Amino acid sequence: MPHPGHPDVAPYAARRRAALSARFRGTAVVVPAGVLRPRANDTDYPFRASSAFTWLTGETAADAVLVMAPRGDTHETTLYVREFAQPGDIAYFTSRIHGAVWVGNVPSVADTEAALRVRTRPLDALEHDLGPWRDSDAAVLTGVDGGVDALLPRGSRERLAEAIDDLRLVKDEWEIERLRHACDITTRGFTDVARELPAVVGRPVRGERWLEGTFWRRARLEGNEVGYTSIVGSGRHATTLHWWRNHGRVEPGTLLLADMGAETDALYTADVTRTMPVDGAWSPAQLKVYRAVHEAQTAGIAEVKAGADFLAAHRAATWVLAEHLHAWGILPVTPEVSCDPDPERPGAGMHRRHTLHGTSHMLGIDVHDCAQARSENYRDGTLAAGYVLTVEPGLYFQVNDRTVPAELRGIGVRIEDDVVVTDGDPLVLSASLPSDPDGVIAWMREAQATPAVP
Fold first, then answer.
1. How confident is the model at residue 279 (pLDDT cuts 50, 70, 90)?
2. How far is CA 96 from the centre of its chain?
3. Fewer CB in a 10 Å sphere around the end CB: N or C, the chain?
4. Is residue 242 within 8 Å of residue 163, measured between CB atoms?
5. Which H or E run contains 335?
6. 391: which strand partners?
7. CA distances (Å), 41 to each of 38, 44, 131, 404, in order?
8. Nearest 5°: CA angle at 177, between 212 and 387?
9. Whose CA is closest to 370, among 202, 215, 175, 136?
């Protein structure tokens, strides 16, 4: 069976391994894909390979292991993959996990080597081949595959995980194209949701769940899955930051906040949020809040440029939100006071009652990408060309918050886009999905006037 991996990933994966090799001269490096996890009894959760493994190989198969054996100043790379039972082997019929009759034909060792252009051996050879490093301080991505951990009991994860995530901060052109593709799928999924909104508004059904399923269908049709649990909150549910239950009705006159992203077959994900009036028209209060958030996001995106602080987008967006909250009489202190970085200053941080969260995080093969990178390269560092991050300010007014005007209670608005850092202007990968208030309404009308197509 032909290997499902992207045929053009091999040279990029090889360069990534070379960069990692330079950081671990003389040390064995072992990165497993992971194993199937039981959901119940003899059923398993859908498998997703560890992000570091796929980034270094382009492979997504369960049980596979990447080994980089030290050879002088460099490493010899070998990928170990499971050989599935084929005709002539009794397990071909009897093994629900490793029999081709049960799971479908799978690529052979030779297929994998040809597609990924990396030396590949059967997984059965792994234990023997790791023997020379059993008692060494190997760099191992532990906690992913218990069998691998047992073969290298002195293996250490921390330095390896940090190094990989440091390297993953800068995306190569192949990765940026995968993220662009994820955003394109996501745009079509959002359009599907807008198209089906009228079918659930005002009906006594779990409309949020229906819309979640609508987006999931597009993600599965054109990609691998959703990149994270979709947030689909209407009305007061939009004010809950991580509203994942999605079991509410969609009532007339409310806003729908949808935070969703499609994951490609190469496992790169988008992360996009749009807020829209379910009836296709903004109320004055909704529009007031939406315009403030849109202005904040515009200010934040403008700060996404090489050499800027990672937190520059957050500071710019938060300042705009604080200005509006103060002008509306909600924030009792000035933006200068509320946005002061000194947490001990009286009044500092008061805006957070309504803004709740940070403005940005890295994005890539994980939705919250590069989480193990050193803080001086991420949160406390400066942006470099090739970084990809979200810009997602929001305002949330709880339904029982008597410190805000009654007409704002129960309104939640977030706008999120995926942005590439360049040496010039920021590149917004999700720009095809409108975010200005008039553009949102026009997009909804266009979507609802056209039939759904696969």
1. very high
2. 31
3. C
4. no
5. helix 335-338
6. 417
7. 7, 8, 33, 51
8. 90
9. 175
Per residue in 183-224, pLDDT tens? 999 999 999 999 999 999 999 999 999 999 999 999 999 999
Residue 131's domain is classified under what CATH number?
Answer: 3.40.350.10
Structurally, the chain folds into a number of domains equal to 2
Residue 236 and residue 374 share a domain:
yes
Q: Which domain holds residue 131?
A: 10-168
List for the chain the helix, strand, coil content (%; round to 5): 40, 15, 45
Amino acid at 371: A
Q: How confident is the model at residue 2 (pLDDT cuts 50, 70, 90)?
A: confident
Shared domain for 111 and 178, answered yes or no, is: no
| Residue 37: exposure state from Cβ atoms within 10 A (0-12, 13-18, ≥19) | exposed
Both 158 and 185 in one domain: the answer is no
User: Structure pTM?
Assistant: 0.96
197 plus 212 within the same structural domain: yes
Mean pLDDT across the chain: 96
In a domain, 2, yes or no: no
Residue 287 sits in a domain whose CATH number is: 3.90.230.10
Give CA angle at 376 (372, 381), nearest 5°.
110
Specify whether the CB–CB gap between 379 and 313 falls below 8 A: no
